[in-house]
Design goal:
Strand order of the largest sheet: 1-29-28-27
Number of domains: 1
Strand content: 35-45%
Number of helices: 1
Helix content: under 10%
Length: 334
């Protein structure tokens, strides 16, 4: 009994110490909005953003290689998925919408998808492994747009449009952080919406979210998944930071939802599950952390960031935002 209590105390001391550390700013001062963020390991990080920009670090953010993708310098790359220091996929929102892939560290990019459909606007990608992934887009011709790949992004095909429910009027997806779609299980993908209504869509199910909604600037922006039943959704109103509710938690796959006793501070564009009961979210008003599965949130930084992601292979947590800003939790590497 004593040993178990002692280990519990050590665990909470570790968590408290980890998040008492300041956010280490790695890069800032540019003119690029960085909404795409993919953290391969503690050392390998890719970012993407406006003006055809992609950035990469292979030394934990100490140095960065910046590139303008040739032929796509006017594109806004709102999301990126990287698999190692050489292989990455970037998504340009509209019109036309593009998906590009590099296998040589960004020296050359191959166009693997193009869509010139009027109204096409891609929002985010998510991959379950190096082969299988999805991209979500705003509704087109009365249907949500969803495409998938099973060959590492070399080819993409529309995915089961007839299966997904019809979007409501003025319902769309926010391309704010590349995280409004998440693969829940290898055979199940979920995405969140906003606008006049806000929903979680999983296959044929359309689950109303208890977030603020009713205008084009409200609703869900991001979803994070702990396991097949436990998710947290964040958002709010990007024109009104005081608007709540801006966060909701489910532990039964969306059948029921709870609102935090202490909500995150202001509008949030991204949420990420870290470990144990610990989650992090970020947005225009800064960074908040929950150590009790979303029940209460505490602000740890007032610096604005669009996206936050944990390393796929490691412990580091990175952030990206406006003005080419990149940050990370100090002392989170292995």
């Amino acid at each position: 009994m004593f040993k178990r209590h002692f280990l519990t105390i050590i665990w909470f001391l570790f968590i408290s110490q980890a998040f008492a550390q300041p956010i280490q700013e790695l890069n800032a001062g540019g003119k690029i909005s960085l909404r795409g963020l993919s953290v391969v390991s503690d050392k390998i990080v890719w970012v993407s953003g406006s003006k055809g920009t992609v950035g990469k670090s292979i030394d934990g953010g100490k140095t960065w290689k910046w590139m303008k993708v040739k032929g796509y310098k006017k594109c806004d790359f709102r999301d990126i998925e990287a698999f190692d220091e050489n292989t990455a996929i970037i998504m340009a929102v509209a019109e036309p919408a593009y998906i590009l892939k590099t296998t040589d560290g960004g020296k050359k990019w191959k166009k693997v998808y193009e869509n010139k459909t009027k109204g096409m606007f891609l929002d985010a990608m998510d991959f379950s492994d190096e082969k299988n992934g999805y991209v979500i887009g705003d509704p087109v011709n009365g249907k949500f747009f969803l495409a998938r790949t099973n060959d590492g992004g070399e080819t993409w095909g529309e995915a089961y449009r007839s299966v997904y429910p019809t979007p409501d009027s003025a319902e769309a997806c926010f391309a704010s952080s590349g995280t409004n779609i998440r693969i829940i299980t290898p055979n199940q993908v979920g995405f969140v919406t906003g606008g006049l209504v806000s929903n979680l869509v999983i296959g044929r199910l359309k689950i109303k979210l208890p977030l603020i909604q009713g205008t084009t600037s409200t609703g869900a922006n991001s979803i994070a998944v702990k396991d097949s039943l436990t998710y947290i959704v964040v958002g709010g109103d990007f024109t009104n930071n005081a608007a709540v509710p801006n966060c909701a938690i489910t532990t039964d796959g969306g059948e029921t939802w709870t609102i935090p006793e202490k909500a995150p501070t202001g509008y949030k564009s991204c949420v990420e599950y870290l470990y144990g009961n610990v989650w992090v979210c970020c947005g225009l008003t800064g960074i908040d952390v929950s150590q009790d599965n979303g029940k209460t949130w505490n602000q740890i930084s007032k610096v604005s960031y669009h996206a936050c992601r944990k390393a796929k292979k490691g412990n580091a947590v990175y952030f990206s935002g406006n003005e080419s800003r990149i940050g990370k939790f100090a002392g989170r590497e292995r």
